UniProtKB/TrEMBL annotation:
Xref: InterPro entries: PduO/GlcC-like, PduO/GlcC-like_sf, YBR137W-like
Protein name, as recorded: UPF0303 protein EDWATA_01549
Gene3D superfamilies attached to this UniProt entry: Haem-degrading domain
Domain of life: Bacteria
Recorded family membership: Belongs to the UPF0303 family.
């Protein structure tokens, strides 16, 4: 699959993975599902779910460090600004042979386009937050989030892989 095709697939994935509703209990259940799947995969990640300017779930697994929370903050800022996954934004900028700083004037101190933060979208509402992980290579971080959201919503893995 070419980079352009992968970017189109990521956009379709973001549009497809929308919640009918989302609340504090949803955040708890999704966060626990992310933790369980990360453990199953042998990953050591920090997990964060932000909804409407409030952190509803945050968990740092053994083997992570405060740096992972900082990576989450920077990746989440990308999602909240562009309403796109941090992985898709990184791929989009790479295809344009540019950076966030060069193209948008955004500091790398506050924004990171590495994979692992995904838009929390509510159907007929839009992006209302971000679901983020940090600790694995960027593609694994992205896949962990997107695949767990897909399973959480009862959608087919084949469409998001």
């Amino acid at each position: 699959m070419s980079s352009e095709e992968e970017l189109l697939r990521l956009h379709a994935e973001e549009q497809r993975l929308q919640f009918p509703t989302f609340n504090h209990e949803s955040a708890w259940q999704l966060g626990c599902a992310l933790r369980q799947e990360a453990e199953r995969r042998g990953l050591h990640v920090t997990i964060d779910i932000q909804f409407a300017d409030q952190t509803l779930f945050h968990y740092a697994m053994p083997g992570t460090s405060p740096d992972n929370a900082e990576w989450i903050r920077r990746k989440r800022n990308v999602v909240l600004r562009f309403h796109r996954s941090s992985y898709a934004m990184g791929m989009r900028l790479a295809l344009r042979n540019t950076t966030l700083e060069a193209f948008y004037g955004l500091s790398n101190a506050d924004y990171a386009v590495q994979g692992g933060s995904f838009p929390l979208r509510i159907a007929n509402c839009g992006c209302v937050g971000a679901v983020s992980v940090s600790g694995a290579p960027q593609r694994e971080d992205h896949l962990l989030v997107s695949e767990v959201i897909s399973n959480f919503l009862g959608l087919s893995q084949a469409k998001s892989a």
